[in-house]
Design goal:
Structural class: mainly alpha
Largest sheet: 2 strands, antiparallel
Number of strands: 2
Strand order of the largest sheet: 1-2
Order of helices and strands: HHHHEEHHH
Strand content: 5-15%
Number of helices: 7
Helix content: over 70%
Distance between the termini: 69 Å
């Protein structure tokens, strides 16, 4: 057992190059994702004879919803209380988005990196959406349509602001 631990520590040191990288916590996060996804897949298989077909419309809703919800989780001021235990406010990052620095060590740092990165969060959101299509397809599509409308509204708000600026300038 000591050989495995020593090898893991050596690999971490070689990888991190002197930086504090919480590889064990990342591994734990990956483990939670794998176990959760596996459990949902097994439960879905037991509850249904086959997985639902995902057509182009579902994929489009899933894509836009994943983008919007991931940014909402990772950047929105309203969700900052959820990120606060893992981050420190450092300013604004764009229209209605915050910039935050990850704080802490170990699992706190790993979770902070996950929830402040919309690219990282998107994988979890998309997986939850896919599970929603298995367990509650109608409610999932309704939520997806709602978030897609919000994303479309965001783009219209940005376009409107840009038009106002060009009309003034």
């Amino acid at each position: 057992m000591n050989t495995v631990v020593d090898t893991a520590r050596r690999q971490k040191a070689e990888y991190a190059a002197g930086e504090d990288r919480p590889l064990g916590s990342y591994l734990g996060t990956l483990g939670v994702y794998a176990v959760t996804t596996g459990a949902m897949a097994l439960l879905g298989r037991r509850m249904r004879d086959r997985p639902p077909a995902i057509g182009f419309g579902d994929l489009a809703l899933m894509t836009i919803t994943t983008h919007k919800v991931a940014r909402l989780i990772a950047k929105d001021p309203v969700t900052s209380p959820l990120r606060a235990p893992f981050t420190r406010y450092s300013g604004t990052a764009g229209p209605s988005e915050l910039s935050e620095e990850v704080r802490g060590k170990g699992i706190r740092h790993a979770v902070g990196e996950l929830i402040t990165c919309p690219f990282c969060t998107a994988q979890w959101v998309a997986t939850a959406y896919a599970a929603g299509l298995v367990f509650a397809p109608h409610a999932t599509r309704l939520a997806g349509a709602t978030m897609t409308a919000v994303a479309g509204s965001d783009w219209l708000q940005l376009a409107y602001a840009r038009l106002q600026q060009s009309a003034e300038g």
